[in-house]
Amino acid sequence: MQMAEEAVCAQDRDPYTAFENRVNELNYGNSYFFRPITKSDLQKVDPLKACEYFIKCFKDPSTFTVVIVGNIDPTIALPLILQYLGGIPKPHEPIMHLNRDELKGLPFTFPKTIFREVVRSPMVEEQCLVQLCFPVELKNGTMVEEIHFVGFLSKLLETKIMQVLRFKHGQVYSVTVSVFLGGNKPSRTCNVRGDISISFSCDPEISSKLVDLTLDEMLRLQEEGPTDHDVSTILEIEQRAHENGLQENYYWLDMILDSYQSRAYSGDVGISFEIQDKGRSKVRSSLNPSTAQLALQRILPFPCTKQYTVVILMPKSSPFKLLKSVFQLMRISHGRDAKILAGIAGLVVLALSLWRHSRSANLHSRDMS
Fold first, then answer.
1. Which of 14, 108, 302, 328 can pair with 297 through a Cys bridge, CB separation 3.0 to 4.6 Å?
2. Where are the beta strands (DSSP E) in the chain?
3. What is the C-alpha separation between 200 and 215, in angstroms, rounded?
4. Rounded to whole angstroms, how far apart are CA atoms 365 and 166?
5. Measured between alpha carbons, how far is 161 from 155 in angstroms, rounded to an integer?
6. Edge to edge, what strands does the sheet with 114-121 contain?
7. CA-CA distance, 199 to 130, in Å (whole number)?
8. Rounded to an integer, what distance in angstroms lies between the CA atom of residue 166 and that of residue 328?
9. 93-97, 155-159, 352-356, 359-363: which has the highest mean pLDDT?
């Protein structure tokens, strides 16, 4: 418990944690799955009950699904599997009574309108991080194909936004587009909910301008569609990543796990894998500027400027740095407007005193909680 409390305290001092917590709170509300763990939460945990539950989760081998990937010799691996996994005694009756179709989805609702917020946090090295999020809901009828469409569109957005922000305006080093589709319950009949997020680092002074440029490019793609060259580039990038992945163990491990966790799974991982692979091939063969444009309008809010959230992480200026800059300015402008500068310095000292008072009050309230 002490290690857990220290980890929570360390996260409280991390600027990115405050930024990420606000992103989750804004996009998912006060949902228990996304809510950050606090020291007061840890104090409510019974360590003995937590350990008892953890042991219970791994006590029934009949609920295990073991996935092994690699260049292994079955004659060597099988005895080891039987020794270390087969030796776990099976209980007389199942311990965990779980049915995938009876599980509940995560209780969250994405904001219906536009939200833009700035999170300011003290930093050792000042930086600015921007994240835009758009809600996504995939319909059940063509779910496998829609999930693959999301993957292709994410790469398209990442490529085109990079071209605008880096190669045209020279303001960022990289752009990342990520997808979260874990908000639904693992059912074969329900729609899939989640979001697509776009993140990049930049100069704090132009962060809002780059957000507008990103939205303009996304709206242009929705209204005009990508070019043939854009689509062929995305298909080539995806094919190259697919071929490279076929040579790696992690790729096959992910494919097997995805097939097992897929809503297409009904007891045979091989059949589930074939369904997903056919879905990928179908999307590849149908992808062109027109289908890509329709997918952008169908999967994202259309227009994209009507529903999204933006959170910007900004460095919080230290009063000490502000005071230092004022004194430097006074030294440079000695004898000129001395009274004005002295008055500014007095205001800075007053602001510093108020800041220290509020900081000590916050720390006291944390200790009380």
1. 302
2. 114-121, 129-138, 176-180, 192-201, 308-315
3. 14
4. 44
5. 10
6. 114-121, 308-315, 129-138, 192-201, 176-180
7. 5
8. 35
9. 155-159
Measured CA to CA, the distance from residue 162 to residue 169 in angstroms comes to 10
Categorize the per-residue pLDDT at 300 as very low, low, confident or very high, splitting at 50, 70 and 90.
Answer: very high
Looking at beta carbons, which pairs linking 275-281 to residues 24 or more positions away fall under 8 Å? Answer: 275/144, 276/144, 278/144, 279/144, 279/145, 279/147, 279/148, 280/148
d(CA 301, CA 215): 12
pLDDT score, position 345: 57
* Residue 106 DSSP symbol: P
Query: Would you state the pLDDT for residue 319?
Result: 58
User: Who's near 39: CB < 8 A, 6+ residues apart?
Assistant: 5, 8, 9, 366, 369
Residue with tokens 């691996």: 77
User: How long a stretch of residues is the chain?
Assistant: 369
For 302-350, the pLDDT digits (tens) are 999 999 999 999 988 765 555 555 455 455 555 455 555 556 556 665 6
State the amino acid at position 169 in one-letter form.
H
